[in-house]
């Protein structure tokens, strides 16, 4: 049996009951929820779900229904960019499951969500139908508030013939490999400096391979760097932290605490531990570690 991971990002991080209902709806399909993570400042929650193809499509439908019923983007406020109540829905192949199967799951889920819930979708990543939408940021361009204007200029959803559901918006549905979602706080309130560091580090600006980066000011005034490591074999978490530390130091800023969102692949964690202690990961001197929590933001 082929297994897949589903990592939905919901635009709700302050109402635990809504996330409880989302988890219960997923578990009722037979899929397994491995992790849940909520952030009040971003007003966003991330679930990590595993299951076979049929269960994950049903889980996606169940999540779309809960999001439509309980999250109204017209009243939503949070730091993180979003186009939908169920904002991002990536399918990730596990083990010997091929990427092509994850692509078909993503497209099938998008079609069924439109048919049953009336929510349109933009397809991204490996599931993209348009080359420019492979990048999530392009699929989610201009946020919920900009969906009508996008539709008017023919930048329309891939699935569905309306700009957006009136309260639930649209969904970015994709297929991708595993990634690591990681936030690092700066000991600074300088948002301009944070944005400059993010721009320096992100791959699209000529920075580190596989790195996507944003900067936000948190409620306590500190600036947070929010990273997706889309290829942790090309840029490890330790490499990213060292680069962030150097970029911040150039601006007279120190790093503060960091935060993992969702789960992390075991081999990425093993590599980070070995790198931290300067150990050969294949050496008997390397510490053994328990099975660790993979992810997205």
Automatic annotation (TrEMBL):
The Formiminotransferase N-terminal subdomain domain, residue ranges: 2-177
Xref: InterPro entries: Formiminotransferase_C, Formiminotransferase_C_sf, Formiminotransferase_cat, Formiminotransferase_N, Formiminotransferase_N_sf, FormiminoTrfase_cat_dom_sf, FTCD
Subcellular location as annotated: Cytoplasm
GO MF entry, a single one: glutamate formimidoyltransferase activity
EC number of the protein: 2.1.2.5
Formiminotransferase C-terminal subdomain domain boundaries: 178-296
Biological process, per Gene Ontology: L-histidine catabolic process to glutamate and formamide; L-histidine catabolic process to glutamate and formate
One GO term describing the cellular component: cytoplasm
Ranges in a coiled coil: none
SMART domains: FTCD, FTCD_N
EC primary class: transferase
Pfam families hit by this protein: FTCD (PF02971), FTCD_N (PF07837)
Keyword annotations from UniProtKB, A to Z: Cytoplasm, Folate-binding, Histidine metabolism, Transferase
Pathway listed: Amino-acid degradation; L-histidine degradation into L-glutamate; L-glutamate from N-formimidoyl-L-glutamate (transferase route): step 1/1
Name used for this protein in its record: glutamate formimidoyltransferase
Classification lineage: unclassified sequences, metagenomes, ecological metagenomes
